[in-house]
Specification:
CATH topology: Rossmann fold
Structural class: alpha/beta
Low-confidence stretches: 1-6
Order of helices and strands: EHEHEHEHEEEHEHEHEEHHEH
Number of strands: 12
Radius of gyration: 20 Å
Distance between the termini: 48 Å
Shape: globular
Mean pLDDT: 92
Bound molecules: glutamic acid, zinc ion
CATH superfamily: HUPs
Helix content: 25-40%
Number of helices: 10
CATH class: Alpha Beta
């Protein structure tokens, strides 16, 4: 077993395959546009494929019609994906098989602890149920995290250190309510789709450490990760449907694309906004320089408006 300090086994020499993986909890807003655009540009600059995966494994948080609306918006914004759209809701069998294998190999166990109990023990899960042979009823499944990667090399942010205790936690792969956990689905599908580069928002920096551990537990090479600054509100919240981030305009994409390019630290010529969408995206692919992108993990929207 490698030390948690070591760099994960990340495959940088496989063909470039990137992805954008929205959850269909609402329409695309400016924050998700920044992420989609950055991953699209990065993939195209590396002659890579760019896939779209709809992360629809959490029905209570989904909004009817949101997945189709997201796809229409991406199209209107000139962000055209390769291959068929991949839906997590169609992958249950594979997720279940992974859970069964983990349980069979004693790499995972049932846990009945409540959030309140974990909080009472300092907020970090201490492996309470690991040796208690819990049964599946009303239980989550946690993976035994004997890897605990907490540092990794981010394409944009350089060396990122996450909270070590949190990164070493046995994390949930099946939720207590019976839904597949994000960590399970995201890693299972990034492996399934041969994703080599994951460009996404800096709100996912902490989960990256767990995901790197999970790749190692599953004995799979990990992709490379690059996190772009997160668009936050004045109050410090991530733009989201919950805090009423407005949907971006499907009919007139140009101003939002230009604004997103500026957010990414680029300086598009002032008349570019008058061009058609494909011209703007072509400009972006040929001109965007990611070294100009701000390094801080969060940027307040109004700062650059
Ligand atoms: N579906 C996740 C989200 O919308 C993103 C997952 C990922 O990029 O790994 O926040
Ligand atoms: Zn427990």
């Amino acid at each position: 077993m490698s030390s948690p300090l070591s760099t994960a086994n990340q495959a940088s020499n496989q063909p470039y395959v990137g992805r954008f993986a929205p959850s269909p909890s609402g329409a695309l807003h400016f924050g998700s546009l920044v992420t989609a655009l950055a991953s699209y540009i990065h993939a195209r600059q590396h002659q890579g494929k760019w896939l779209v995966r709809i992360e629809d494994i959490d029905p209570p948080r989904e909004q009817a019609g949101a997945a189709d609306d997201i796809l229409r918006t991406l199209d209107a914004y000139g962000l055209h994906w390769d291959s068929e759209v991949f839906y997590q809701s169609q992958q249950s069998e594979r997720y279940r098989a992974i859970l069964q294998t983990l349980l069979k190999c004693k790499q995972a166990y049932y846990c009945t602890c409540t959030r309140a109990q974990i909080k009472a023990h300092g907020g970090i899960y201490q492996g309470h149920c690991k040796t208690l042979a819990r049964t599946p009823e009303n239980a989550a499944i946690r993976v035994i995290n004997n890897v605990g990667h907490y540092r990794f090399n981010d394409i944009f942010q350089g060396t990122v250190s996450c909270q070590q205790a949190l990164a070493a936690e046995d994390f949930t792969v099946l939720r207590k309510d019976g839904l597949f956990a994000y960590q399970l689905a995201v890693v299972a599908d990034d492996i399934e789709q041969n994703i080599s580069h994951i460009i996404r928002g800096a709100d996912l920096l902490e989960p990256t450490a767990r995901q790197l551990s999970f790749y190692q537990i599953l004995a799979q090479p990990a992709p490379l990760f690059g996190h772009v600054p997160l668009v936050v509100t004045e109050q410090g919240y991530k733009l989201s449907k919950q805090n009423k981030a407005p949907a971006i305009d499907q009919k007139r994409p140009q101003p939002s694309i230009i604004a997103a390019l500026k957010f990414l630290g680029q300086t598009p010529p002032s008349d570019l906004v008058e061009q058609d969408v494909d011209t703007i995206i072509d400009w972006a692919v040929s001109q965007v320089n990611f070294t100009k992108m701000p390094k801080q993990p969060e940027i307040v929207l109004s700062v650059f408006e």
